[in-house]
Write a structure and sequence with these properties.
This protein is α/β, with parallel strands linked by helices and 410 residues long. It has 13 helices and 17 strands.
Length: 410
C-alpha cells in the first residue's frame, strides 16, 4: 500500500510537523490523491522523516525544565548490531525496542550545585524496585585480569537482565563522575523498558589527590574516601527515590549474582517487619569472603579514646566479639537470616521506607560521637544499622547458606 505526499508540502515542512508533534496534521497531509502526485511507500517516507526527527532531537537543546518526548529506534537498532556499539554485549530484542518507544518522558538540567541531572520515565509505570550503582569512570565496571576480560556498562545491563526481574517494575539510578559514561548511560538504557532511569553527573567533593589509590592504606585517606562515598550514595539515593518500596545497591564491579538473590531479599523483607537491611556474602577470586564491612558483634574503641568506664567496654567486646561473614554463615541454610551489626554494600537491600524516615549513609564516624569531636566507628555502610535503630521496619541481616555474589579481581 502506498501513501500520497501532496506536492504543496515540502519534506522540510513535513519534518517540521513531526518535530512539533502535529501528527494529526501530518496524517491529513499523507492522504490519497490523484495519480499525478508524487508517490512514496509508507516505509520509505516514514523512515526518512523519523530518522531526521530522531537525529535533530538528539542535537537540539531543549528547555532543561521542560518535559519532552524522543526515541530513536533507528539509532538503537544500529547500536544493537554494530560491533563498535558503546553498549557492545547488550542486545535488546525487537519487542523491547517497541515497548521502550512508547510513553517516554525526559528531562535534563544542571542543578544549583552544578551537578548534571537527567531523568527518563514511562509516565504510565510505577516501579517497586530502585536499583542503584555508582561509578568513577569506565574502569569501575572491572578491569581485565587473568580470569576475566574487562567489563563495561553493557556487561552490567546483561547482569541486570539476568536477574529475571520484570524491568518495567524497576527504576535504575546511576551516578558517575565521567562525562563520557554519563552520556553512555543516558543513551544505552533507552531500550530496556525500565519504569524510570535517573543518571547523575557528579564530580564529587574532594580533590583527586586525596583519593589516590596508592594512599588508600593511610587511615586518613581511607576515612576521606569512605566519607566521600557516603555523601555520593546519599545524593544518588535521595535524588533517584520516588515511590519505590525496595532499594538495591550493587557495586559496579560485581559480575555475578546467584539466581533469585534479589527476589529472596525482597521476600524476606515483605515477610518480616524486623528486617529492613539485607546483604549477602561476596567472594573475590579464591577468597570466600571479600566484604569485611559486614559483621556481627562489637568492636572495641581505640585505646587512646577517653572512656568513663573502659573496663565495661572491654567486657562487652569479650562477650560479643566481632565475627565476619565467613564465620557467620557456617552451618546455616539458604532460608536462614543471620543478624548483623554492620553491613557492606557489594550488594545491599534497603527498605525504602527507612530512607523516608531519615536513614542515610553516615559521612562521619557516628559511633561514639561527641559534641566536640567525631566518633571512632560506623562510617558509611558500617554505620547504617546503628543509624537505623528505632526506625520502623529496620533490622540488619545476612542471607545464610550458599547465597553469594562475586566481585571482579582488580
Amino acid at each position: 500500500m502506498s501513501f500520497i505526499v501532496r506536492k504543496d508540502f515540502s519534506i522540510i515542512q513535513l519534518i517540521e510537523l513531526a518535530l512539533t508533534h502535529k501528527r494529526h496534521k501530518l496524517r491529513r497531509v499523507l492522504k490519497n490523491s490523484n495519480q499525478n502526485d508524487k508517490r512514496q511507500s509508507v516505509h520509505g517516507f516514514a523512515k526518512n522523516v523519523w530518522r531526521v526527527w530522531a537525529t535533530l532531537a538528539l542535537k537540539l537543546k531543549p528547555d532543561p525544565f521542560k518535559w519532552y518526548t524522543s526515541f530513536d529506534r533507528t539509532i538503537l537498532t544500529a547500536q544493537r548490531t554494530s560491533e563498535n556499539s558503546p553498549i557492545a554485549g547488550f542486545r535488546p530484542t525487537d519487542s523491547q525496542l517497541q515497548e521502550a518507544a512508547s510513553g517516554l518522558r525526559e528531562k535534563e538540567t544542571v542543578l544549583s550545585d552544578g551537578v548534571t541531572y537527567y531523568q527518563r520515565e514511562h509516565h504510565d509505570r510505577q516501579a517497586s524496585i530502585l536499583w542503584l550503582v555508582m561509578t568513577k569512570d569506565e574502569k569501575s565496571w572491572g578491569k581485565k585480569n587473568k580470569e576475566h576480560s574487562a567489563r563495561s556498562f553493557g556487561s552490567f545491563l546483561n547482569l541486570l537482565a539476568s536477574t529475571r526481574l520484570n524491568l518495567t517494575d524497576v527504576s535504575l539510578g546511576l551516578l558517575t563522575s565521567c562525562e563520557q559514561e554519563y552520556r553512555l548511560y543516558k543513551s544505552a538504557t533507552k531500550a530496556l523498558g525500565l519504569a524510570r532511569v535517573t543518571v547523575i553527573l557528579n564530580k564529587g567533593y574532594l580533590e583527586k589527590e586525596e583519593l589516590l589509590n596508592a594512599n588508600r592504606k593511610d587511615p586518613r585517606i581511607q576515612t576521606a574516601r569512605r566519607s566521600e562515598l557516603a555523601r555520593l550514595r546519599n545524593y544518588l539515593m535521595l535524588k533517584a527515590l520516588h515511590d519505590e518500596s525496595h532499594i538495591v545497591w550493587l557495586d559496579a564491579d560485581v559480575f555475578y549474582l546467584d539466581e533469585g538473590i534479589v527476589q529472596t531479599m525482597i521476600a524476606h523483607a515483605q515477610r518480616r517487619q524486623d528486617v529492613g537491611l539485607l546483604t549477602a556474602r561476596c567472594t573475590y577470586g579464591p577468597n570466600f569472603n571479600y566484604d569485611k564491612n559486614a559483621w556481627a558483634g562489637t568492636r572495641p574503641p581505640p585505646p587512646e579514646l577517653e572512656l568513663a568506664d573502659p573496663t565495661s567496654a572491654q567486657a562487652e567486646t569479650n562477650a560479643q566479639p566481632q565475627r565476619l561473614v565467613d564465620e557467620l554463615v557456617k552451618g546455616t541454610k539458604d532460608d536462614d537470616l543471620i543478624p548483623l551489626t554492620a553491613v557492606g554494600a557489594t550488594i545491599l537491600y534497603i527498605r525504602a521506607s527507612l530512607v523516608l524516615q531519615g536513614l542515610s549513609f553516615p559521612h562521619q564516624y557516628t559511633v561514639g560521637t561527641r559534641w566536640t569531636r567525631d566518633g571512632y566507628d560506623g562510617l558509611e555502610t558500617e554505620g547504617l544499622c546503628y543509624r537505623a535503630k528505632g526506625l520502623s521496619g529496620a533490622g540488619c541481616s545476612l542471607l545464610g547458606g550458599k547465597w553469594h555474589v562475586k566481585h571482579m579481581i582488580n
